[in-house]
Design a protein that fits this description.
With 443 residues, the protein is mainly alpha-helical. 58% of the residues lie in helices and 1% in strands. It has two domains: 277 residues, no CATH class; 98 residues, no CATH class.
Protein backbone atom coordinates (compact mmCIF):
# COMPACT_ATOMS: atom_id res chain seq x y z
CA UNK A 1 0.00 0.00 0.00
CA UNK A 2 1.35 3.41 -0.96
CA UNK A 3 1.20 6.17 1.59
CA UNK A 4 0.75 9.68 0.29
CA UNK A 5 2.46 12.44 2.22
CA UNK A 6 1.54 16.08 2.13
CA UNK A 7 2.72 17.29 -1.25
CA UNK A 8 3.21 20.94 -1.95
CA UNK A 9 5.53 21.42 -4.92
CA UNK A 10 7.67 24.48 -5.17
CA UNK A 11 7.35 26.47 -8.35
CA UNK A 12 10.54 26.04 -10.35
CA UNK A 13 12.70 29.08 -9.85
CA UNK A 14 9.90 30.77 -7.93
CA UNK A 15 12.09 33.16 -5.93
CA UNK A 16 14.21 34.08 -8.92
CA UNK A 17 11.12 34.69 -11.03
CA UNK A 18 9.65 36.94 -8.35
CA UNK A 19 12.84 38.98 -8.11
CA UNK A 20 13.03 39.24 -11.89
CA UNK A 21 9.39 40.30 -12.07
CA UNK A 22 9.83 42.90 -9.32
CA UNK A 23 12.83 44.47 -11.05
CA UNK A 24 10.95 44.47 -14.36
CA UNK A 25 7.88 46.11 -12.79
CA UNK A 26 9.95 48.83 -11.10
CA UNK A 27 11.78 49.49 -14.36
CA UNK A 28 8.52 49.87 -16.28
CA UNK A 29 6.88 52.15 -13.74
CA UNK A 30 10.01 54.32 -13.44
CA UNK A 31 10.47 54.75 -17.19
CA UNK A 32 6.78 55.51 -17.69
CA UNK A 33 6.76 58.00 -14.82
CA UNK A 34 9.76 59.84 -16.26
CA UNK A 35 8.17 59.81 -19.69
CA UNK A 36 4.91 61.30 -18.42
CA UNK A 37 6.70 64.18 -16.74
CA UNK A 38 9.28 64.59 -19.47
CA UNK A 39 10.03 68.16 -20.59
CA UNK A 40 10.03 69.02 -24.28
CA UNK A 41 13.58 69.98 -25.22
CA UNK A 42 12.89 71.73 -28.48
CA UNK A 43 10.08 74.05 -29.61
CA UNK A 44 7.54 72.72 -32.06
CA UNK A 45 8.30 73.46 -35.74
CA UNK A 46 6.38 76.25 -37.40
CA UNK A 47 4.73 75.44 -40.73
CA UNK A 48 2.90 78.68 -41.63
CA UNK A 49 5.60 80.61 -43.50
CA UNK A 50 5.72 78.98 -46.91
CA UNK A 51 6.72 75.53 -45.70
CA UNK A 52 5.95 72.70 -48.12
CA UNK A 53 5.56 69.26 -46.60
CA UNK A 54 7.12 66.59 -48.84
CA UNK A 55 5.18 63.50 -49.82
CA UNK A 56 5.55 60.67 -47.35
CA UNK A 57 6.82 57.39 -48.74
CA UNK A 58 5.45 54.28 -47.05
CA UNK A 59 7.56 51.12 -47.20
CA UNK A 60 4.68 48.80 -48.07
CA UNK A 61 6.94 45.80 -48.62
CA UNK A 62 8.40 45.97 -45.13
CA UNK A 63 4.92 46.38 -43.60
CA UNK A 64 3.70 43.32 -45.50
CA UNK A 65 6.67 41.27 -44.33
CA UNK A 66 6.04 42.36 -40.74
CA UNK A 67 2.42 41.21 -41.00
CA UNK A 68 3.49 37.82 -42.36
CA UNK A 69 6.09 37.50 -39.62
CA UNK A 70 3.52 38.40 -36.97
CA UNK A 71 1.12 35.71 -38.16
CA UNK A 72 3.96 33.18 -38.38
CA UNK A 73 5.05 33.83 -34.78
CA UNK A 74 1.42 33.71 -33.66
CA UNK A 75 0.93 30.25 -35.17
CA UNK A 76 4.27 29.06 -33.83
CA UNK A 77 3.57 30.39 -30.33
CA UNK A 78 0.10 28.84 -30.24
CA UNK A 79 1.52 25.47 -31.29
CA UNK A 80 4.34 25.53 -28.73
CA UNK A 81 2.18 26.65 -25.81
CA UNK A 82 -0.53 24.10 -26.65
CA UNK A 83 2.11 21.35 -26.72
CA UNK A 84 3.57 22.54 -23.40
CA UNK A 85 0.14 22.58 -21.76
CA UNK A 86 -1.41 19.37 -23.06
CA UNK A 87 1.59 17.12 -23.70
CA UNK A 88 4.45 18.29 -21.48
CA UNK A 89 2.14 19.69 -18.75
CA UNK A 90 4.91 22.14 -17.94
CA UNK A 91 4.16 25.33 -16.06
CA UNK A 92 7.80 26.39 -16.34
CA UNK A 93 7.74 26.06 -20.12
CA UNK A 94 4.52 28.08 -20.34
CA UNK A 95 6.04 30.82 -18.17
CA UNK A 96 9.15 31.24 -20.34
CA UNK A 97 7.06 31.10 -23.49
CA UNK A 98 4.88 33.90 -22.14
CA UNK A 99 8.02 36.00 -21.59
CA UNK A 100 9.02 35.41 -25.21
CA UNK A 101 5.55 36.48 -26.37
CA UNK A 102 5.73 39.57 -24.17
CA UNK A 103 9.09 40.49 -25.71
CA UNK A 104 7.93 40.03 -29.31
CA UNK A 105 4.19 40.86 -29.42
CA UNK A 106 4.47 43.38 -26.60
CA UNK A 107 7.66 45.42 -26.73
CA UNK A 108 8.95 44.64 -30.23
CA UNK A 109 5.61 44.87 -32.07
CA UNK A 110 4.31 47.38 -29.49
CA UNK A 111 1.06 45.53 -28.86
CA UNK A 112 -0.30 45.93 -32.38
CA UNK A 113 -1.84 44.10 -34.09
CA UNK A 114 -3.53 42.24 -31.22
CA UNK A 115 -6.43 39.83 -30.97
CA UNK A 116 -8.29 42.05 -28.52
CA UNK A 117 -8.30 45.10 -30.77
CA UNK A 118 -9.08 42.97 -33.84
CA UNK A 119 -12.67 42.71 -32.55
CA UNK A 120 -13.20 46.27 -33.74
CA UNK A 121 -11.60 45.68 -37.14
CA UNK A 122 -13.84 42.69 -37.76
CA UNK A 123 -16.95 44.62 -36.65
CA UNK A 124 -16.20 47.67 -38.79
CA UNK A 125 -15.58 45.46 -41.82
CA UNK A 126 -19.02 43.88 -41.38
CA UNK A 127 -20.85 47.23 -41.24
CA UNK A 128 -18.68 49.39 -43.53
CA UNK A 129 -18.07 47.89 -46.96
CA UNK A 130 -15.49 50.56 -47.79
CA UNK A 131 -13.22 49.48 -44.93
CA UNK A 132 -10.34 47.30 -46.05
CA UNK A 133 -9.75 44.64 -43.41
CA UNK A 134 -6.08 43.71 -42.97
CA UNK A 135 -5.36 40.01 -43.32
CA UNK A 136 -3.25 40.11 -40.17
CA UNK A 137 -6.24 41.38 -38.18
CA UNK A 138 -8.34 38.47 -39.50
CA UNK A 139 -5.63 35.99 -38.54
CA UNK A 140 -5.14 37.42 -35.04
CA UNK A 141 -8.89 37.33 -34.47
CA UNK A 142 -9.65 33.89 -35.90
CA UNK A 143 -6.60 31.73 -35.08
CA UNK A 144 -6.78 31.93 -31.24
CA UNK A 145 -10.50 31.12 -31.41
CA UNK A 146 -9.85 28.05 -33.57
CA UNK A 147 -7.10 26.80 -31.25
CA UNK A 148 -9.33 27.45 -28.24
CA UNK A 149 -12.14 25.44 -29.80
CA UNK A 150 -9.86 22.40 -30.00
CA UNK A 151 -7.47 22.82 -27.05
CA UNK A 152 -8.78 25.43 -24.60
CA UNK A 153 -7.44 28.89 -23.82
CA UNK A 154 -3.77 28.22 -24.49
CA UNK A 155 -3.62 31.65 -26.15
CA UNK A 156 -4.23 33.23 -22.75
CA UNK A 157 -1.73 30.89 -21.10
CA UNK A 158 1.42 31.94 -22.91
CA UNK A 159 0.78 33.93 -26.12
CA UNK A 160 -1.14 37.05 -25.12
CA UNK A 161 1.34 39.76 -23.98
CA UNK A 162 -1.32 41.35 -21.77
CA UNK A 163 -1.64 38.18 -19.73
CA UNK A 164 2.13 37.74 -19.57
CA UNK A 165 2.54 41.29 -18.25
CA UNK A 166 0.10 40.60 -15.42
CA UNK A 167 1.53 37.16 -14.66
CA UNK A 168 4.87 38.77 -13.88
CA UNK A 169 3.44 40.66 -10.93
CA UNK A 170 1.25 37.90 -9.44
CA UNK A 171 3.35 37.62 -6.29
CA UNK A 172 0.64 36.91 -3.73
CA UNK A 173 -2.69 36.30 -5.52
CA UNK A 174 -5.76 35.94 -3.35
CA UNK A 175 -9.11 34.41 -4.26
CA UNK A 176 -11.93 36.86 -4.88
CA UNK A 177 -14.75 34.44 -4.15
CA UNK A 178 -17.59 33.25 -6.40
CA UNK A 179 -19.95 36.18 -5.76
CA UNK A 180 -17.38 38.89 -6.50
CA UNK A 181 -16.14 36.95 -9.52
CA UNK A 182 -19.68 36.78 -10.86
CA UNK A 183 -20.37 40.50 -10.42
CA UNK A 184 -17.03 41.69 -11.82
CA UNK A 185 -17.24 39.07 -14.56
CA UNK A 186 -20.15 40.99 -16.12
CA UNK A 187 -17.93 44.00 -16.93
CA UNK A 188 -16.19 42.38 -19.95
CA UNK A 189 -19.60 41.78 -21.55
CA UNK A 190 -20.43 45.49 -21.20
CA UNK A 191 -17.03 46.43 -22.61
CA UNK A 192 -17.46 44.02 -25.54
CA UNK A 193 -20.95 45.32 -26.32
CA UNK A 194 -19.84 48.97 -26.28
CA UNK A 195 -16.76 48.20 -28.39
CA UNK A 196 -18.88 46.49 -31.04
CA UNK A 197 -21.48 49.29 -30.99
CA UNK A 198 -18.94 52.09 -31.43
CA UNK A 199 -17.01 50.19 -34.09
CA UNK A 200 -20.19 49.33 -36.03
CA UNK A 201 -21.24 52.99 -36.11
CA UNK A 202 -17.76 54.17 -37.06
CA UNK A 203 -17.54 56.19 -33.84
CA UNK A 204 -14.33 55.02 -32.22
CA UNK A 205 -12.10 52.05 -31.41
CA UNK A 206 -12.49 52.29 -27.66
CA UNK A 207 -10.48 49.13 -26.95
CA UNK A 208 -7.42 50.69 -28.56
CA UNK A 209 -8.08 54.14 -27.10
CA UNK A 210 -8.28 52.84 -23.54
CA UNK A 211 -5.74 50.05 -23.84
CA UNK A 212 -3.80 50.11 -20.54
CA UNK A 213 -0.66 48.32 -21.74
CA UNK A 214 0.09 49.61 -25.25
CA UNK A 215 1.35 52.87 -23.75
CA UNK A 216 3.78 50.83 -21.65
CA UNK A 217 4.90 48.79 -24.65
CA UNK A 218 5.56 52.00 -26.59
CA UNK A 219 6.92 54.02 -23.63
CA UNK A 220 4.54 56.89 -24.43
CA UNK A 221 1.65 56.41 -22.01
CA UNK A 222 -0.31 59.51 -21.06
CA UNK A 223 -0.66 60.37 -17.40
CA UNK A 224 -4.19 58.92 -17.18
CA UNK A 225 -3.27 55.66 -18.89
CA UNK A 226 -0.10 55.45 -16.80
CA UNK A 227 -2.22 55.60 -13.64
CA UNK A 228 -4.67 53.06 -15.08
CA UNK A 229 -1.95 50.59 -16.08
CA UNK A 230 -0.11 51.11 -12.81
CA UNK A 231 -3.29 50.43 -10.84
CA UNK A 232 -3.89 47.21 -12.78
CA UNK A 233 -0.32 45.98 -12.25
CA UNK A 234 -0.32 46.85 -8.55
CA UNK A 235 -3.72 45.23 -8.00
CA UNK A 236 -2.40 42.26 -9.99
CA UNK A 237 -0.07 41.51 -7.09
CA UNK A 238 -3.10 40.42 -5.04
CA UNK A 239 -5.75 39.75 -7.72
CA UNK A 240 -4.31 37.60 -10.49
CA UNK A 241 -4.83 38.96 -14.01
CA UNK A 242 -7.43 41.65 -13.21
CA UNK A 243 -7.60 42.86 -16.82
CA UNK A 244 -7.98 39.36 -18.27
CA UNK A 245 -10.71 38.37 -15.84
CA UNK A 246 -12.69 41.57 -15.35
CA UNK A 247 -12.10 43.73 -18.45
CA UNK A 248 -10.86 41.83 -21.52
CA UNK A 249 -13.59 41.73 -24.20
CA UNK A 250 -11.78 39.10 -26.25
CA UNK A 251 -11.79 36.89 -23.16
CA UNK A 252 -15.59 36.76 -23.45
CA UNK A 253 -15.32 35.13 -26.88
CA UNK A 254 -12.59 32.76 -25.70
CA UNK A 255 -14.74 31.83 -22.70
CA UNK A 256 -17.64 30.88 -24.95
CA UNK A 257 -15.55 28.89 -27.41
CA UNK A 258 -13.48 27.13 -24.74
CA UNK A 259 -16.60 25.59 -23.21
CA UNK A 260 -16.85 23.41 -26.32
CA UNK A 261 -13.13 22.61 -26.52
CA UNK A 262 -12.35 19.13 -27.79
CA UNK A 263 -9.29 18.49 -25.60
CA UNK A 264 -8.80 20.68 -22.56
CA UNK A 265 -6.17 20.85 -19.83
CA UNK A 266 -6.84 18.45 -16.97
CA UNK A 267 -5.50 18.79 -13.44
CA UNK A 268 -4.58 15.13 -13.16
CA UNK A 269 -3.23 13.03 -16.05
CA UNK A 270 -5.06 9.96 -14.78
CA UNK A 271 -7.79 9.14 -12.27
CA UNK A 272 -8.25 11.71 -9.49
CA UNK A 273 -7.39 10.34 -6.04
CA UNK A 274 -9.16 13.13 -4.11
CA UNK A 275 -5.99 14.33 -2.37
CA UNK A 276 -7.27 17.95 -2.43
CA UNK A 277 -3.77 19.34 -3.06
CA UNK A 278 -4.96 21.30 -6.11
CA UNK A 279 -7.86 22.86 -4.23
CA UNK A 280 -6.13 26.23 -3.70
CA UNK A 281 -3.70 26.07 -6.60
CA UNK A 282 -5.64 28.25 -9.06
CA UNK A 283 -5.42 32.02 -8.45
CA UNK A 284 -8.24 32.59 -10.95
CA UNK A 285 -10.92 30.56 -9.12
CA UNK A 286 -11.21 28.39 -12.24
CA UNK A 287 -11.34 24.99 -10.55
CA UNK A 288 -14.78 23.46 -10.01
CA UNK A 289 -14.89 21.69 -6.66
CA UNK A 290 -16.67 18.36 -6.17
CA UNK A 291 -20.27 18.74 -5.06
CA UNK A 292 -21.46 15.40 -3.73
CA UNK A 293 -22.52 16.00 -0.12
CA UNK A 294 -25.97 17.41 -0.88
CA UNK A 295 -28.86 15.16 -1.68
CA UNK A 296 -30.34 15.60 -5.15
CA UNK A 297 -33.07 18.21 -5.19
CA UNK A 298 -36.60 16.95 -5.19
CA UNK A 299 -38.41 17.06 -8.49
CA UNK A 300 -40.85 19.83 -7.47
CA UNK A 301 -38.09 22.24 -6.39
CA UNK A 302 -36.14 21.58 -9.57
CA UNK A 303 -39.23 22.20 -11.71
CA UNK A 304 -39.90 25.51 -9.92
CA UNK A 305 -36.37 26.65 -10.55
CA UNK A 306 -36.58 25.82 -14.24
CA UNK A 307 -39.88 27.71 -14.61
CA UNK A 308 -38.42 30.73 -12.82
CA UNK A 309 -35.32 30.66 -15.03
CA UNK A 310 -37.43 30.43 -18.19
CA UNK A 311 -39.35 33.53 -17.08
CA UNK A 312 -36.38 35.55 -15.86
CA UNK A 313 -34.21 35.27 -18.98
CA UNK A 314 -36.78 36.74 -21.44
CA UNK A 315 -37.74 39.40 -18.87
CA UNK A 316 -34.17 40.63 -18.39
CA UNK A 317 -33.54 40.46 -22.15
CA UNK A 318 -36.51 42.71 -23.00
CA UNK A 319 -35.84 45.01 -20.04
CA UNK A 320 -32.21 45.39 -21.08
CA UNK A 321 -33.16 46.12 -24.68
CA UNK A 322 -35.65 48.81 -23.67
CA UNK A 323 -33.14 50.40 -21.30
CA UNK A 324 -30.47 50.45 -24.01
CA UNK A 325 -32.86 52.11 -26.48
CA UNK A 326 -33.65 54.84 -23.95
CA UNK A 327 -29.96 55.54 -23.51
CA UNK A 328 -29.19 55.74 -27.23
CA UNK A 329 -28.70 59.53 -27.22
CA UNK A 330 -26.29 59.26 -24.30
CA UNK A 331 -24.37 56.51 -26.05
CA UNK A 332 -24.32 58.54 -29.27
CA UNK A 333 -22.74 61.49 -27.44
CA UNK A 334 -19.34 59.88 -27.94
CA UNK A 335 -19.63 60.29 -31.72
CA UNK A 336 -17.87 63.36 -33.10
CA UNK A 337 -20.66 64.29 -35.53
CA UNK A 338 -23.27 64.11 -32.80
CA UNK A 339 -21.19 66.32 -30.52
CA UNK A 340 -20.64 68.83 -33.32
CA UNK A 341 -24.36 68.95 -34.15
CA UNK A 342 -25.23 69.56 -30.52
CA UNK A 343 -22.67 72.35 -30.30
CA UNK A 344 -24.13 74.03 -33.42
CA UNK A 345 -27.71 73.60 -32.21
CA UNK A 346 -27.01 75.09 -28.77
CA UNK A 347 -24.87 78.18 -29.33
CA UNK A 348 -26.36 79.87 -26.26
CA UNK A 349 -24.50 77.53 -23.96
CA UNK A 350 -21.19 78.58 -25.46
CA UNK A 351 -21.77 82.33 -25.31
CA UNK A 352 -18.72 84.12 -24.02
CA UNK A 353 -16.49 81.13 -24.72
CA UNK A 354 -14.06 80.80 -27.60
CA UNK A 355 -15.24 78.79 -30.57
CA UNK A 356 -14.09 75.18 -30.50
CA UNK A 357 -11.62 73.84 -33.06
CA UNK A 358 -14.23 71.40 -34.36
CA UNK A 359 -16.74 74.17 -35.12
CA UNK A 360 -14.07 76.32 -36.77
CA UNK A 361 -12.94 73.41 -38.94
CA UNK A 362 -16.52 72.60 -39.93
CA UNK A 363 -17.29 76.19 -40.93
CA UNK A 364 -14.12 76.41 -42.99
CA UNK A 365 -14.96 73.16 -44.82
CA UNK A 366 -17.98 74.72 -46.52
CA UNK A 367 -20.17 71.74 -45.74
CA UNK A 368 -23.88 72.62 -45.34
CA UNK A 369 -25.25 72.39 -41.82
CA UNK A 370 -28.33 70.57 -43.12
CA UNK A 371 -26.14 67.75 -44.40
CA UNK A 372 -24.48 67.42 -40.99
CA UNK A 373 -27.88 67.27 -39.29
CA UNK A 374 -29.08 64.61 -41.73
CA UNK A 375 -25.99 62.47 -41.03
CA UNK A 376 -26.48 62.95 -37.30
CA UNK A 377 -30.13 61.89 -37.55
CA UNK A 378 -29.07 58.72 -39.35
CA UNK A 379 -26.46 58.04 -36.67
CA UNK A 380 -29.05 58.45 -33.91
CA UNK A 381 -31.25 55.86 -35.62
CA UNK A 382 -28.31 53.48 -35.74
CA UNK A 383 -27.62 54.06 -32.07
CA UNK A 384 -31.28 53.47 -31.25
CA UNK A 385 -31.16 50.08 -32.98
CA UNK A 386 -27.74 49.39 -31.51
CA UNK A 387 -29.01 50.34 -28.05
CA UNK A 388 -31.75 47.72 -28.35
CA UNK A 389 -29.28 45.06 -29.47
CA UNK A 390 -26.73 45.98 -26.79
CA UNK A 391 -29.36 46.06 -24.05
CA UNK A 392 -30.87 42.72 -25.09
CA UNK A 393 -27.40 41.18 -25.16
CA UNK A 394 -26.53 42.42 -21.67
CA UNK A 395 -29.94 41.46 -20.31
CA UNK A 396 -29.57 37.97 -21.76
CA UNK A 397 -26.10 37.64 -20.22
CA UNK A 398 -27.38 38.79 -16.83
CA UNK A 399 -30.32 36.38 -16.98
CA UNK A 400 -28.16 33.41 -17.95
CA UNK A 401 -25.62 34.29 -15.23
CA UNK A 402 -28.36 34.44 -12.63
CA UNK A 403 -29.80 31.14 -13.85
CA UNK A 404 -26.37 29.53 -13.69
CA UNK A 405 -26.05 30.60 -10.06
CA UNK A 406 -29.39 28.98 -9.28
CA UNK A 407 -28.51 25.60 -10.75
CA UNK A 408 -26.45 23.12 -8.74
CA UNK A 409 -24.13 20.90 -10.77
CA UNK A 410 -22.99 17.74 -9.04
CA UNK A 411 -19.36 16.74 -9.66
CA UNK A 412 -17.16 14.01 -8.24
CA UNK A 413 -13.69 15.33 -9.17
CA UNK A 414 -11.69 18.54 -9.19
CA UNK A 415 -11.94 19.79 -12.77
CA UNK A 416 -10.97 23.05 -14.53
CA UNK A 417 -13.86 25.24 -15.52
CA UNK A 418 -13.46 25.18 -19.29
CA UNK A 419 -14.70 28.72 -19.75
CA UNK A 420 -12.75 30.47 -17.00
CA UNK A 421 -9.55 28.37 -17.09
CA UNK A 422 -6.57 30.14 -18.72
CA UNK A 423 -4.75 26.79 -19.25
CA UNK A 424 -1.73 28.22 -17.43
CA UNK A 425 -0.81 24.74 -16.04
CA UNK A 426 -0.29 25.99 -12.48
CA UNK A 427 -2.58 23.33 -11.06
CA UNK A 428 -0.71 20.40 -12.65
CA UNK A 429 2.31 21.07 -10.43
CA UNK A 430 0.16 20.35 -7.38
CA UNK A 431 -1.16 16.99 -8.53
CA UNK A 432 0.83 14.02 -7.18
CA UNK A 433 -0.57 11.59 -9.76
CA UNK A 434 1.63 10.46 -12.63
CA UNK A 435 0.42 9.09 -15.94
CA UNK A 436 1.97 5.64 -15.47
CA UNK A 437 -0.21 3.34 -13.39
CA UNK A 438 -1.85 6.22 -11.57
CA UNK A 439 1.13 6.27 -9.20
CA UNK A 440 1.31 9.22 -6.76
CA UNK A 441 4.52 11.16 -6.41
CA UNK A 442 6.18 10.61 -3.06
CA UNK A 443 8.05 13.16 -0.95
Amino acid sequence: MIRIKTYKPLRPGGKKRKRLALVFLLFLLTTQFLNVYGVQRFPKPEFESGYFQPETLQPAGRAEMLAIMDVFFLVLSLAIVTWLVLKKRSRTGVFWMSLASLAYFGFYRQGCVCSIGAIQNMTLALFDKSYVLPLSAIAFFILPLIVTLFFGRTFCAGVCPFGAMQDLVSFNPQKAGPKLNTVLGLIPYIYLGLAVLYAATGTDFIICRYDPFVGIFRFNASFGMFIFAGALLISGIFIARPYCRFLCPYGVLLNWVSRFSWKHLTITPAQCIQCRLCEDSCPYDAIDMPVTGKNPEIRTATLRKMILICLLIPFFTVLGGWTGSQLHETLAGVNGKVRLSRALLQPAQTTGQPESIEITAFKSSGKPVSQLYAETSLLLKKFYTGGWVLGCFLGLVFGITLAYRMVTTYKTDYTPNKGACFSCARCVDFCPVTLNNNTPKLT
